[in-house]
Amino acid sequence: MKCEMCGNDSKLRKVKVEGAVLNLCKGCQGTGEVMGTSKSKKRKSSSKKRRSKKKKRKPRSQQKFLVKGFEKKVKEAREDKGLKIGELAEKIKVKESVVHRIESGKLKPDEKLARKLKKVLGVELYREESVVDYETTKKDFSGSGATIGDIAKVKRKD
Ligand SMILES: [Zn+2]
């Protein structure tokens, strides 16, 4: 076989030159893309960019706080409804002792439990407050004479 470029009789290789495949000697291979040996096997990356970011749809500036005096709130609301501790416990599916401890302030109900209590008693034990966002909030309210307490009220979601 002879080189299709220079006619030299030597070891040839298939080389892609401008779309055509030619048999070229070593000296001429530089003009094209040597086939077979190159890393032309570019693996089609099947790796889809996986968005593993599972961001909670809760802005960082909002935090929930257990209200002060939640134990009183619960107790008063319960008595208002004429419920016994055992009855309330049954409704929110906890042990009587849990209600006892909540009403004595020894146990802080988590949000889940607070939701149940809200359903049964209609008391809101958590309130949402803006914390990190305070600076922007302050700007928004500047001049309006709003106090932080007012801002908290505004931000509050019931
Ligand atoms: Zn050649």
Report on the architecture of this protein:
The chain has 158 residues and is of the alpha+beta class. It has two domains: 1-36, no CATH class; 62-155, lambda repressor-like DNA-binding domains (434 Repressor (Amino-terminal Domain), Orthogonal Bundle). It is 34% helix and 14% strand. The chain has six helices and five strands. The chain has helices at residues 70-80, 85-91, 96-103, 111-121, 134-141, 148-155, and strands at 13-17, 20-24, 33-34, 62-66, 126-130. The strands form two sheets. A three-stranded antiparallel sheet has the order 2-1-3, with no helix packed on it. Strand 1 (13-17) and strand 2 (20-24) form a beta hairpin. Helix 2 packs across helix 3 (96-103). The longest helix is centred in the middle third of the chain and has 11 residues, at 70-80. The radius of gyration is 37 Å and the shape is rod-shaped. Residues 38-42 have low confidence and may be disordered.
Task: Give a short synopsis of this structure.
The chain is an alpha+beta fold and 158 residues long. The protein is built from 6 helices and 5 strands; from the N terminus they run E-E-E-E-H-H-H-H-E-H-H.
